[in-house]
Amino acid sequence: MTGALSGLSEELIVCVFSLLQPRSRRKAGGGFAAGSLQETHPKAFKNIGQSAALLMAFFCGALAGAAAFKAAGIAIAMSAALAILVAIGVLDWLVPMTEFPSPVEQE
Prior knowledge:
By secondary structure, the chain is mainly alpha-helical. The protein has one domain. It is 82% helix and 0% strand. Helix 1 packs across helix 3 and helix 3 packs across helix 4. The longest helix is centred in the middle third of the chain and has 38 residues. The model has no long low-confidence stretch (mean pLDDT 77).
């Protein structure tokens, strides 16, 4: 959770700095104080949506868990969470979401 939150804040900072630079520098392709910001800028806009969606999923899961705990008790709430976790694990095992080793690691 902390990693997702810090990642979102970093991406927001990159986007804010890119939007605050003068238009003449934006068109020229420069304007960032560091080259690393210029390299990460195009990916930052895409990653903001992904990070925000991940944080929203954490929040919705917490609300669902609290509601299940209040309605049915701890045994049912924990059983439902475990069942969802096992289902996701089986689905990922049958249809892998990530290939290992990743193409980056092979180079």
